Amino acid sequence: MAKKKPLSRRLQKQGVPEPLNESLVTRKRKAAPDSDEFDKRRKVDKQSFAAKSNGKKPVNGSAPNGKAKGILKKAKAQPIASKPKPKSKKVPVPKEDEWEDADSDGDLSGDGIDDPDIMEDELDGVQVSGLDALGSASEDELLDDELAESGSNFDSDEEVKQQGMWSEDEDDDEALDKLTAANIEGLSKRLDKQIAEDEEAGDAELQETNMQTNILGDPEKIIDDDEPAPQHLAPDLRLLRERINETIRVLESFSQLGEKGRSRSEYTQQLIKDICSYYGYSEFLAEKLYSLFPPREAFSFFEANETPRPIVLRTNTLRTHRRELAQSLINRGVNLEPVGKWSKVGLQIFETTVPLGATPEYLAGQYILQAASSFLPVMALAPQENERVLDMAAAPGGKTTHIAALMRNTGVIFANDASKTRSKGLIGNIHRLGVKNTIVCNYDATEFPRVMGGFDRVLIDAPCSGTGVISKDPSVKTNKTEKDFMKMPFTQKKLLLAAIDSVDHASKTGGYIVYSTCSVTVEENEMVVEYALTKRPNVKLVSTGLVFGKEGFTRHMGKIFHPSMKETRRYYPHAYNMDGFFVAKFKKIGPTKAGPIVNGDKAKMENGTTVEEEVVDRTPIADDEKSDDEFGGWDDSEDEKLILLAKKKAARRKGKDPRLVDFNASKAKARMKSKTQAEE
Ligand SMILES: C[S@@+](CC[C@H](N)C(=O)[O-])C[C@H]1O[C@@H](n2cnc3c(N)ncnc32)[C@H](O)[C@@H]1O
């Protein structure tokens, strides 16, 4: 029987997943095309592989013509038992719980259409637009910018079947039936694909079981360091993949399967090398990412980075309701479904015949194309109506406009970004989506709170290396160096401290800071958070309130982090079919103490470099240093004091450290003294 193609990740649901199904990996191996096809798919450069393989032959025992020997060959020669019958499934009519209660019915008033530049971008046949935030920008997007030059599972079928497609506040009218009918065609197509996938998975699982049985009974040589690899030949990717699988299996049962005389780390090194060759990563980054997971999960992570994430849009509740929007788009031939019950505003797009970045609904600001992961920091921030909120790194505004919608256009948002170029997109989105409570500013956010402070909540969606969005930007695989993982955390730490210092700990409704990145590295996440906890004892980590996500690390590669780090959340493409992401939420519990003078306190970084802390001394200067002389009179030394005091106040108003005034004054005094002496 001809095999149906399994459902691509883009068509799979986002959010809380079924547990990772390793048969997906096995299925791919089984269906692995010829090495030529692999070559085309991932554009692995033949010569670079030859160089990378470093004088070793690419696959154990494989002759240059790609024939496998030993364990691999045996594994392949195993008979495949008859296929298990997949259980038939009903058409799932998914629905969602009430979770986020602030944004289900928005104020529909708003500005007219005001979108400067729409462009189309073919993404697997789904056309999207230019201004939208299809995820968070990585550092590289800043290159044109001056500043950059100087930086559980609840989605099971059971639950789904019991519920309708839309959230409770939406499913009590006839529209639901119509909508469900309109979507039924799309849903049954998906069902067919799902059944095909189940068949395939069952088949692959069985084959894998057979292979495992063989391996467990017959450990053999995987690493071969005798024969050098032929430099001029392209890797046999199918065999390479098989060796990756075999090495993982050995690492999983090392005492039984490990070759005598070979250490675990030899296997690990071999595996990392193979991952580099297979997926095209630099060894440096592959090692860093590999260290985050057990071997098999690492493989799933690397694999997931090879496929695009689903297209998702966020309903702009300032302009419409999700169901109305869904109806309009369905009428235009868009096959969609709620993104998952964790969000009341997200719609996942399966197919579309129209460019999503140019529909009348898009132009009217009814939605923004936004990666599902980008919803998370704003949901964690949970801004309230009438608050004062700072979005420190806001462009192009996916999160700012989400915050505005949650606040129903009340209160005030300061949307800041250091990049003027990117800020144009931010302004465009603010206008298009009818946001009216936002002031855009263009500072280096490390200058806060000297620009402004006293916020109820601050979001710092920090610039990062982008290791969570490799499927969107594969250049990350090779263009990140050790230096990047020093520079980035340096900026991120400064930004996070600035965010903390900008929040009013005494806020009646808030006092929260959310730190997020679209990166999965520990350097940019837990280590930044740990640094902030150390430097600012006036904050503590609190629950993000997000209903899914993996706990942040409390230890990693010998480093131990604060136990509350488990309150932070990590998101991975292989686990949730969404971009890699990190979210931490802090509560400020006291004022930031006036710290040491600028340049005085330098925080030690991992690599021995230092981060300067720019703590603004906000201790009030007493106004009661008055002259004894009720009638004034002239008292030079007293006048000097008063002048100094006034200068300090002026300096503080300008955000400068007042102690610099003392410093300058004593320098001036010394200059005068030496001048006088010279004259004498
Ligand atoms: C991850 S993106 C922000 C995405 C945005 N929050 C959204 O949802 O659309 C990071 C942003 O940080 C900005 N940035 C980088 N360094 C900055 C700094 N020192 N101060 C303020 N913004 C900065 C970049 O220009 C970039 O737009």
Automatic annotation (TrEMBL):
Q: Where is the SAM-dependent MTase RsmB/NOP-type domain?
A: 301-589
Q: What are the Acidic residues biased-composition ranges?
A: 97-124, 138-148
Listed under GO cellular component are: nucleolus
Q: Where in the cell is it found?
A: Nucleus, Nucleolus
**In its keyword annotation, does this UniProt entry include RNA-binding?**
yes
List the keywords (alphabetical): Methyltransferase, Nucleus, Ribosome biogenesis, RNA-binding, S-adenosyl-L-methionine, Transferase
Q: What is this protein called?
A: Nucleolar protein 2
Species this protein is from: Microthyrium microscopicum
Organism phylogeny: Eukaryota, Fungi, Dikarya, Ascomycota, Pezizomycotina
